[in-house]
Amino acid sequence: MAILGGAVVIAACGGSPTSSNTPSGGSDGAAAAQGPVKASACQGKSLAFIGLAGEEGDKALKGWRAQHGVSLKITNNADWGEVIGALKTGQPYDLATIPYKEAQRMIGAKIFQPIPTDRLPNWQRLFPAFRESNLLRGPDGKVYGVPIAWGDSPYAYVPARVPDPPKSILDLAKPAWKGRFVMLDDPSFSFFLIGRALGYDKSPLLTPGQLDQVKQRAIGIVKNAAAFSTSYQDETDRMVAGDVDLAVDGWEAMETFAKEKGGTLKVGFFREKPSGGWWDGLAIPANVKDPECALAYVNAVISAPAQAKIATSLVSGVVNQDAVAGLPASMRGLYDYGPVQSGDTASQFSASSPPAQAPSGYTSSDDWSQAWKEVKASK
Q: For the structural domain made of 155-275+351-377, what CATH number should be given?
């Protein structure tokens, strides 16, 4: 399906792969003198990942890890508050998912090290929209994450039990959906779409009055939800097991996850536009024990061969331009690469949550968090 167009200095408690980089991927002399990162930096090492299932390159880099004797420990978690908390408290991770909609929040939390993009041989092969994204950069202009996959924002459902999928996110407040769906414990996707459904075309920029109306509608939806989910894998497991019939929000990769578990899922889209696009990336935590190996692994994940495998597994778009040719024929027309080639991030990846510092007259991310707490308290 085509994409819908229309999101410092780190505490030195671990090593750092470089001292700086610039928005164009350049760096200072010290970083440049180190030269391109090499896979040999990972020989016999162990890496720990926290984030979204499938984005750690478990299958795509199985051969690479075997070649270099690398072991990978995986912790799946899509609760970004929990992920930030884990990294803030120094829990031992070497790699983490950095999703576009939470990228600036995570960078602001100072949980990641800057990425020396000039040392990544595969960096220059990324599509301009990802390589040049401001969401990857902190106030210091440095890059703190490397995109590895992208796509649109659907919901997922069990076609055998949902012959008539919902048309609007507001449909989920109807009695027919009571106890039949799960949703992530995060206001960004639902608040954003509810705002659009109510005609607030600037959503996620909402006035206090508009946010109150969104909150009231969200209460009805959350009361109908069977539970909050912790990850896309959790959502998949619940639907395959027959506990629920639909998950908000979803991911095309869940079709693959379900197939591996003997189930069948499909994805759909609410009529509210734009439903947004997304990219997810890899970041290196501030307290990483082996930054050089973590950097080498990131470079391997964005190589053309690994990208083709990851995209096929996750039903996502590739970020490396050279990887498109390696995709199966059925995958090549799935996403429109025109906007990401042109660098059009504004229409391709519309923000689904407000900034921490909202324009005058509009609510901020803290306002949304407070409203979400009130929504959950009413369940």
A: 3.40.190.10
CATH architecture of 29-151+278-348: 3-Layer(aba) Sandwich (3.40)
Going from the C-alpha of 255 to that of each of 71, 105, 154, 367, the distances in angstroms are: 27, 29, 12, 34
Yes or no: say if 116 and 31 are a contact pair by the CB < 8 Å rule.
Answer: yes
Averaged pLDDT for residues 354-362: 90
- Please tell me whether residue 201 adopts helix, strand or coil conformation: coil
pTM, rounded to two decimals: 0.70
- DSSP-based three-state secondary structure for 351: coil
- The single-letter code of the amino acid at 21 is N
Give 226-248 as a DSSP string.
SEEESSHHHHHHHHHHTS-SEEE
Query: Any idea what DSSP says for residue 224?
Result: H
Q: Which of 3-12, 138-147, 244-253 has the lowest mean pLDDT?
A: 3-12
What is d(CA 73, CA 94) in angstroms, rounded to the nearest whole number? 10
Residue 364 is encoded by which pair of tokens?
Answer: 């901020």
Q: Evaluate whether 29-151+278-348 and 155-275+351-377 have a shared fold.
A: yes
Residue 294 CB neighbours (<10 A): 31
Crossing angle for the helix pair 187-197 and 365-377, to the nearest 10 degrees = 90
DSSP letter assigned to residue 4: P
Instruction: Please write the tens of the pLDDT for every residue from 16-51.
Output: 454 345 333 333 333 444 899 999 999 999 999 999
Q: What are phi and psi of 359, to 5 degrees?
A: -60, 155
pLDDT at 1 over 60: no
Inter-residue contact 284 to 115 (CB < 8 Å): yes
- 224 pLDDT above the threshold of 50: yes
CA distance 8 to 273: 35
Q: Which sequence spans correspond to the domains of the chain?
A: 29-151+278-348, 155-275+351-377
